[in-house]
Fold each of these.
Amino acid sequence: MPPLTIIIFGASGDLTSRKLIPALFHLDMAGLLPDDANIVGVARRPFSNDAFRSSVEPMTREAMLSMGESWFPGAWNRFAKRLFYVAGDATTTEGLQHLTEFLQKREGTTGGQRLYYLSVSPDLYPQIAARFGEAGYEKEIGGFRRVVIEKPFGHNLETGRAVNKSLHACFREDQIYRIDHYLGKETVQNILIFRFANTMFEPLWNHQYIDHVQITAAEKVPVGKRGGYYNDSGVLRDMFQSHLLQVVTMVAMENPGRYTADRLRNEKIKVLEAMKISKVEDAFNNIAVGQYDGYRNEEGVPKDSKTPTYAAIRLEIDNGRWSNVPFYVRSGKSMRSRYSEVSIQFRCPPHMLIPMPPGETLECNHLSLILQPNEGIRLNFQTKVPEVDGTRLQARDLAFDYRDAFTERALPEAYERLLLDAIMGEATLFMRNDEIEQAWEIMDPLIAATEAANAPQPEVYAPGSDGPKCADALLAKEGRKWQKIR
Ligand SMILES: NC(=O)c1ccc[n+]([C@@H]2O[C@H](COP(=O)([O-])OP(=O)(O)OC[C@H]3O[C@@H](n4cnc5c(N)ncnc54)[C@H](OP(=O)(O)O)[C@@H]3O)[C@@H](O)[C@H]2O)c1
């Protein structure tokens, strides 16, 4: 096999040291990297190979220890020999010159396999893709050429299309791997297995039995030092356009028949295309936004910022399976806890065998797919309280916990799975250009409504709370309420 080179642009950045190098090291320890694989870091600042190796070691060690694994200096030293550094500005022809020479020397006349990972600001993608095209980086001499890109994929539909166009000027669509680390999470992948490898739930997975669906992605941390970046995007771009709409597609899609990239992505796009698109003028019927108290004092945030740090949106999927089943999706920063789940709220029984006592209502079945932390599945159902006098009902959980069930190792990190998939050419968990554009079509009117000059100020919520009251009102007006954030 021709040699594999993984080229990380943005090698001195946060993502590289916190996620990419630890994931590659872990893959190496598991024997999953080819023997001859090398990793070349590229950024503008000068570094020697040794300085680069030393710069990424502490974060890798920290990542291993935080996963409950031991640190093996010998394994690191062996892995570090795979690491190289080439300084250069990837947006200029001269900047790529040294990298081109490095690759030519490594691959000789037979060529090699290359994975380009763009861990740089997305504003640079068009320029970098143009330089790649001029240097012939897309030509598959001796092996594949693939490019991995990180979100955000544009700022709205127009810029999202422009990013896709600039990438297509150099690469074929099947060479482009758009990463959404949510799809690399074990628990998100398990949504499909849960639905399609079990017979029990799929017959119920429709409007006849499901009243509504809730998806929550709560973060405990505030924006911290990322205020400048965050204020330009806000929660709707940062969490909804990609991560959360992707989770909705996994919950709502039809069985793809086979687990292949195109089959899966064809089904996901059908869900996105079936979503009703709000008009800007009545978007506030379907959205509630908040901003945590103190956000405007964060570094890099303007004192009059209207950027939402919390949003709850109501989506409708206009097809036979999901007719009249709202999907309520919420996400926010500085909330009570870090907690993500998909909650399927089933309809109540059409007739009650035992009438509820006056003033009490039945808690109808719900199923929680807990994505993080304490990953697991909980099915909430009614039981009879054991007692001799009378018949009382009480809701209880049937629970499955990943960490109890699979004790051998920590859940794999999303980046490990996604990097290995990109190396293997397995694109199932990466997003296609049409998914990105359709997701912007859905989000653009909602975002435009919150950014309009006459848009109301997002409601202030207390840090450490469950979000603003207006999010409760969004559900209350349809007689529903949010599940507790655990
Ligand atoms: N950090 C995260 O947790 C996270 C999460 C999700 C997505 N992302 C995405 O991942 C990407 C990287 O994020 P990050 O947080 O790692 O950013 P970062 O810490 O700001 O790092 C950016 C890197 O790009 C390099 N760079 C800038 N201009 C360059 C150029 N012209 N040529 C070559 N290298 C250049 C910088 O080094 P020099 O200044 O030395 O060139 C630096 O190594 C972004 O697309 C971001 O949106 C990050």
Amino acid sequence: MRIEVDYGLCEANAICVGILPDVFDLNDDDELNVLAPEVTPDNEELVADAVRQCPRQAIAVVD
Ligand code: SF4
């Protein structure tokens, strides 16, 4: 399973960065980067939190 972000929806408000800073990052141009797209047993609960809390529903977990 891996994380996909719909960059057309993302408004770069960094809520996901606050939840998982090792996975999500905003660059100097305020663009979101996914540093580590793999969902692991260690981060799956926090990934689910990020999916739920993204106000733009821009984060998905796909096979
Ligand atoms: S929480 Fe959603 S809208 Fe905000 S930066 Fe992350 S993906 Fe983009």
